[in-house]
């Protein structure tokens, strides 16, 4: 199994280290030609969603990556990655891949000082550590054209911070920054 990690900006190295700890081969997506390589799943890491979105377009990676996600390639998205997948972004006209029918609020917990750590439940996984850094949250989920609604996986302080929709899992926090590997294992379980 090979997992491709978007490596344009943000916390991608920590995801690679987490996967290597689980014995999984990783490749980095840095340019359009990397999308021609063989891989079984994609990680969209935390970082700055506006910068990642701009780089994806500038490097001609946006459309081919969106196509892979829409065709069912399993995706794990964290923090900024969650924003990239959202169909709607509160107080912002620009969106990115639009592959999960949900409205996300950026920097919902404030700036860097609004960062925090907690333990909470993730459906089907159990209680896990959650590190939030300038995190978004999901304001709402909605039905797609077929009537399918994202499954809510995690709620912290009455806010949705984890969802699963088709082959996509998106979390507002950074599982790659904690020692618990269960989020990554659940993602790999969607591929196996």
UniProtKB/TrEMBL annotation:
List of residues binding L-glutamine: 47-49, 106, 133-134
Catalytic residues in the record: 79, 174, 176
Entry GO CC: cytosol; glutaminase complex
Domain of life: Bacteria
Xref: InterPro entries: Class_I_gatase-like, PdxT/SNO, PdxT/SNO_CS
UniProt keyword annotation of Lyase present: yes
Catalytically driven reaction(s): aldehydo-D-ribose 5-phosphate + D-glyceraldehyde 3-phosphate + L-glutamine = pyridoxal 5'-phosphate + L-glutamate + phosphate + 3 H2O + H(+); L-glutamine + H2O = L-glutamate + NH4(+)
Listed GO MF terms: glutaminase activity; pyridoxal 5'-phosphate synthase (glutamine hydrolysing) activity
GO biological process: pyridoxal phosphate biosynthetic process; pyridoxine metabolic process
Pfam families documented for this protein: SNO
Alphabetic keyword roster: Glutamine amidotransferase, Hydrolase, Lyase, Pyridoxal phosphate
Record has Hydrolase as a keyword: yes
CDD domains, sorted: GATase1_PB
Complex formation: In the presence of PdxS, forms a dodecamer of heterodimers. Only shows activity in the heterodimer.
Family of the protein in this entry: Belongs to the glutaminase PdxT/SNO family.
Function: Catalyzes the hydrolysis of glutamine to glutamate and ammonia as part of the biosynthesis of pyridoxal 5'-phosphate. The resulting ammonia molecule is channeled to the active site of PdxS.
Protein name per UniProt: Pyridoxal 5'-phosphate synthase glutaminase subunit PdxT
Gene: pdxT
């Amino acid at each position: 199994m090979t997992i491709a990690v978007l490596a344009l900006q943000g916390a991608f190295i920590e995801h690679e280290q987490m996967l290597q700890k689980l014995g999984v081969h990783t490749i980095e997506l840095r340019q359009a030609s990397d999308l021609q390589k063989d891989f079984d799943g994609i990680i969209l890491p935390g970082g700055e969603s506006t910068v990642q979105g701009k780089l994806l377009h500038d490097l001609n990676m946006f459309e081919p990556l969106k196509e892979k996600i829409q065709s069912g390639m399993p995706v794990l998205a964290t923090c900024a990655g969650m924003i990239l997948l959202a169909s709607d972004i509160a107080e912002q006209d620009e969106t990115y891949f639009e592959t999960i029918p949900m409205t996300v609020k950026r920097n919902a917990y404030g700036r860097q000082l609004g960062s925090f750590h907690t333990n909470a439940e993730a459906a089907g996984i159990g209680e896990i550590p959650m590190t939030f850094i300038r995190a978004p949250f999901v304001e709402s989920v909605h039905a797609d054209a077929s009537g399918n609604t994202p499954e809510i996986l995690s709620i912290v302080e009455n806010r949705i911070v984890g969802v699963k929709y088709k082959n996509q899992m998106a979390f507002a926090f950074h599982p790659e920054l904690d020692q618990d590997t269960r989020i990554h294992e659940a993602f790999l379980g969607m591929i196996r």
